[in-house]
Amino acid sequence: MILEVTEVEHYTDSLFRIRTERPRSFRFTAGEFTMIGIPDTNITRAYSFTNGPGDDYLEFYSIKVPNGPLTSKLQHIKEGDSLEVKERTSGTLTMANIELGGNLWMFATGTGIAPFVSILRDPDTYNNFDTVNVAWSVRTSAELDAYHDFIKDILSDGINNYYPTVTQETPRQGVLQGRIQEHIANDTYWKFIRPDSDKVMVCGSMDFNKDMKNLFIDTGFTEGSKRSAGTFVQEKAFVG
Ligand SMILES: Cc1cc2nc3c(=O)[nH]c(=O)nc-3n(C[C@H](O)[C@H](O)[C@H](O)COP(=O)(O)OP(=O)(O)OC[C@H]3O[C@@H](n4cnc5c(N)ncnc54)[C@H](O)[C@@H]3O)c2cc1C
Hints:
By secondary structure, the chain is of the alpha/beta class. The chain has 2 domains: 2-85, Translation factors (Elongation Factor Tu (Ef-tu), domain 3, Beta Barrel), CATH 2.40.30.10; 95-234, 3-Layer(aba) Sandwich (Rossmann fold). 18% of the residues lie in helices and 30% in strands. The strands form 2 sheets. It has a 6-stranded antiparallel β-sheet with strand order 4-3-6-1-2-5. It has a 6-stranded parallel β-sheet with strand order 10-9-8-7-11-12, sandwiched between helices. It is globular.
């Protein structure tokens, strides 16, 4: 599909967000990704949707990689330009792959928050679980800007919880310091996460995904896939 860009917002020198029009017939499942690119360049890359399944726009949240084949060009896209969005969608981070019920935990680093923003924009999420919790780790507070207020507003209601954390500066109020793996290892905030009551979704850097998989599989979580739902799922090659 060649779609018109309706909005572009830049947050830091390495992060931005693109919205496009959405054809009425186009469907996807919250948590999935597709391939996007600049028309006529033959360069496409995997991107998670950040819009909800019911929104009348498509949205993507992007890194700017210096000299990156796609993002060195994509970062210059403007309202009114065209974006190629493939119709085929796929992904592991969906409700079909995880057992429903109990507490949902979504753990992300960097742009790995993208599929979880879509899941948070899907009203079914709040019907499927007793509580919905997000922990998002970035290097500096400015890297939270795109979705911080949205997640805070939707989850800080005394039932659901949001734990932003920064690793490379002193955090502002309401933001934790340190890597998610360290918080879990120190039992600081998440000592009650257990396979009989909790469901875990993970999306981030390769190292983060690997650490989190080891940690949760060792404590009895089972990895879900298309074949059978589990208590733990991750998007394996998010940052290829
Ligand atoms: C399933 C899946 C979903 C993805 N969803 C997103 C998304 O929603 N948003 C997004 O920005 N990227 C996402 N990516 C990464 C994306 O496909 C591209 O790699 C990225 O846009 C850079 O493209 P490029 O051609 O400029 O550089 P590439 O040649 O693709 O990447 C060059 C290098 O940059 C680094 N890098 C690439 N992407 C990232 C990233 N997101 N964060 C940190 N470092 C990175 C890696 O070290 C990589 O080897 C996803 C990847 C996969 C596999």
